[in-house]
Amino acid sequence: MKFYNVVTGVLRVFSKLFFKFEIIGLENVPKEGSIILAANHKSNLDPIFLAASMHKNREVTAVAKKELFNIKPLGYILNKINVIPVDRDNPTASTVKNILKALRNGGCIGMFPEGTRNKDAGFLKAKAGLGMFAVKGKALVIPVSIITTYKVFNKVTIYIDKPISFEDYYKEKLNTDDYQRLSQNVLEVIKENYHKYAK
Questions:
Q1: For the segment 165-185, what is each residue's pLDDT rounded down to a tens digit?
Q2: According to the model, what pLDDT value does residue 143 have?
Q3: In terms of C-beta distances under 8 Å and separation of at least 24 residues, what long-range contacts does 167-175 make, across chains too?
Q4: Which of 130, 80, 68, 79 is nearest to 103 (CA)?
Q5: Under a CB-based contact definition with an 8 Å cutoff, are residues 112 and 39 in contact?
Q6: Phi, psi for 148 (deg, rounded to 5)
Q7: Which of 68, 85, 174, 177 has the fewest CB atoms below 10 angstroms from its CB?
Q8: Measured between alpha carbons, how far is 111 from 60 in angstroms, rounded to an integer?
Q9: Strand intervals (E) in 41-186
Q10: Each residue of 21-77: pLDDT tens digit?
């Protein structure tokens, strides 16, 4: 059994053991092809919930701040499950290249449009990165709403919406503002579903 499957299996058990873990819309995730799972981000538990929801469905390549790789044994595990390190203050060309390479090879990338964890109520403004990677990597974007209070034994709902294609923009010359707008469009879907299913 692949080490990745072992890790995500443990995360799935953790999620179901300590939370009322529910996944809605898993059928909206293509079994193959380049995709980006775009989710809201309010807690360090979000990457765990995202990976747990995809266990045995798609192998998610995540992007994490490089400082986490210095923590043992966490750094070892992150390397083994193909997490891409990123310097959030100064993203390097190699980081961008690695993400695009994964997408162009038909991979699945987990990404947070807001760019960082939002500790306050509501949502932050989306960053341009999601739109840029979706267009340049020719990937479908899957909006994922993580709906929970993050309190132990409370409900966690992972709502997965239908794929969004940016194919119309593949041959367009886009700037940062354009990419940010595309990212924000995805975030609006995430927000809408969040509020709808949080009731």
A1: 999 999 999 999 999 999 999
A2: 98
A3: 167/138, 169/135, 170/135, 170/138, 172/135, 174/131, 174/132, 174/135
A4: 130
A5: yes
A6: -170, 160
A7: 177
A8: 10
A9: 60-65, 84-86, 108-111, 140-148, 155-160
A10: 999 999 999 999 999 999 999 998 999 999 999 988 999 998 888 888 888 888 888
Exposed / middle / buried, residue 122 (Cβ in 10 Å: 0-12, 13-18, 19+) = exposed
Strand-pair partners of 35: 108, 140
- Contact between 56 and 119 under an 8 Å Cβ cutoff? The reply is no
- pTM of the predicted protein model: 0.92
The pLDDT value recorded for residue 107 is 96
Per-residue DSSP letter, 124 = P
More reliable by pLDDT, 86 or 191: 191
Tokens of 21: 């873990």
Q: Retrieve residue 77's tokens.
A: 């595990």
Residue 35's identity, in one-letter code, is I
Tell me phi and psi for residue 90, to 5 degrees: -150, 75
